[in-house]
Amino acid sequence: MSTRYPQQSASRARVYHGEPQDQLLLLATRVANNLSARGVCAMIGGVPRLSTPMPELPEAWELGESLGIGSFGSVWRVSHRETAEQGAVKVLPRPEENTHKLMRITTEIATMERSCRGCPFILQLREVHTMERHILIVMELAAGGELLDYLARTDRNEALVRSFFQQLVLGVKFCHSQGVAHRDLKPANLLVGGASGTVLKIADFGLAAEFEPSPSLRCSRQSLRYTLCGSPLYMAPELLNLAEGEGYNPMAADVWSIGTVLFAMLTGRPPFRASSLAELIRMASASKRYLKMPLRLSKECRALLRSLLTVSPQRRATLDGVCRHPWFAPNLDETLALVLEVVVDEAAVLPELVDRREVAELHERALPALLRLARL
């Protein structure tokens, strides 16, 4: 028998919720040496995790292939027995006595339910079940896999990258407008979905922070956060250097992460190649000196990257500024029109047990709002 899982917020916690502190060096070193994000996730814990027990599922769902294994659980393809609807289920051990993991799980569920519904650039929550040994989060299936894997099969031209980057910026801006900062934006949390494989999906809101949304998207003192979290190679320097009791602007931290992701989308690697965590902190804290960009990138693209990867949060680009940047603007209307066409087509073929009208209306309401955000 399954039940809804209780909702909590982790925004006030002052503990590290990402990879354990003693494993940050391993993470930084592995990625700096070009180990894939999936490989790094498998290495967390000190030894390779090559397999995971097959999870128990509610009777309505049939288990398919494993899609990945991470430090907090595993992800599997599933199919609904009655409707044949395809989905992905995140399988998490029940953290009966682990408060930190419990807060991460409930934060992700609450954030996706309350603040992210309807945005086509955010992986949508379908169901939540608590089983005897696991918590199951059933989500839409992003069949295209991880974004970097998708781009690796292309020539990484700026026009293609720009289309996905536009979706990323508008998806994050949508989150911020709803009072949510992601705080763990990285390539492994960006997937490709849609029938045509053209829609970006932001995933994993387990480290998200909620705050009172502001129409201006400015950070008030009450919106500051004190939790060190995220993935070091994509983490803002103010977090890498966070001192006890210091606060930071979570929206500005998301902007830095967006810059690191854009660099990775264009080049296939993070912006700073470090052999140790200390070296990574030094390079990120002096990005103007250490940021080396390929000359093949256009002048406008390089300028945008520098503005995103500015050390000072106060001087760093804002998402409003990104939307007005000359590199960002081209073909935005075409990107959104294509996304709308994809989601409406998908709503038309949803199984009978899914409310097609609700899904279509959610997306149709969200896209004009996203376009308005882009025009601010």
Structure summarized in a few sentences:
The chain is an alpha+beta fold and 376 residues long.
Structure description:
The chain is an alpha+beta fold. The protein has two domains: 21-140, Phosphorylase Kinase, domain 1; 145-323, Transferase(Phosphotransferase), domain 1. It is 38% helix and 14% strand. The protein contains 13 helices and ten strands. The protein has helices at 24-32, 37-43, 99-114, 147-152, 158-177, 237-240, 250-267, 277-284, 287-290, 299-308, 319-323, 332-348, 356-375, and strands at residues 61-69, 74-80, 86-93, 125-130, 134-140, 145-146, 180-181, 190-193, 199-202, 209-210. Strands 1-2-3-5-4 form a five-stranded antiparallel sheet. Strand 2 and strand 3 (86-93) form a beta hairpin. It is globular and about 55 Å long. The termini are far apart. The relative contact order is 0.13.
Order of SSEs, N→C?
HHEEEHEEEHHEEEEHHHHHHHH
> Mind telling me the CATH class of the largest domain?
Mainly Alpha
Q: What count of helical segments does DSSP give?
A: 13
Radius of gyration: 20 Å
What is the subunit organization of this protein? single chain
Fill in the CATH topology of the largest domain. Answer: Transferase(Phosphotransferase), domain 1
Low-confidence stretches: 1-51, 347-356
Shape: globular
Helix content: 25-40%
Q: End-to-end span in angstroms?
A: 47 Å
- How many beta-strand elements? 10
Which structural class fits the helix and strand makeup? Answer: alpha+beta
Strand coverage percent: 5-15%
Give a short account of the largest sheet: 5 strands, antiparallel
Number of domains: 2
Kindly report the spatial arrangement of strands forming the biggest sheet. 1-2-3-5-4
